[in-house]
Amino acid sequence: xxxxxxxxxxxxxxxxxxxxxxxxxxxxxxxxxxxxxxxxxxxxxxxxxxxxxxxxxxxxxxxxxxxxxxxxxxxxxxxxxxxxxxxx
Length: 88
Description:
This protein is α+β, with helices and mostly antiparallel strands. The chain is built from three helices and four strands; from the N terminus they run αβαββαβ. Strands 2-3-1-4 form a four-stranded antiparallel beta sheet, with helices on one face. The radius of gyration is 16 Å and the shape is globular.
């Protein structure tokens, strides 16, 4: 007997993984957005990056396939900006 794995099967497996939503307080401004997007998009496990500059905490929201809290915090801080995860 031969088992055939199709692209559809692989897509379903990817969709079954839990997506983590990570939220950070930053001092980033719009001028930093493209720079931070470029840095964070280098991580293959990050699916989506959003900013809320209207919020007093200048929120950075990241959706990822695994826990990337430390990597994100260190990457943002390496640019000289403040970054701290907000707890639930």
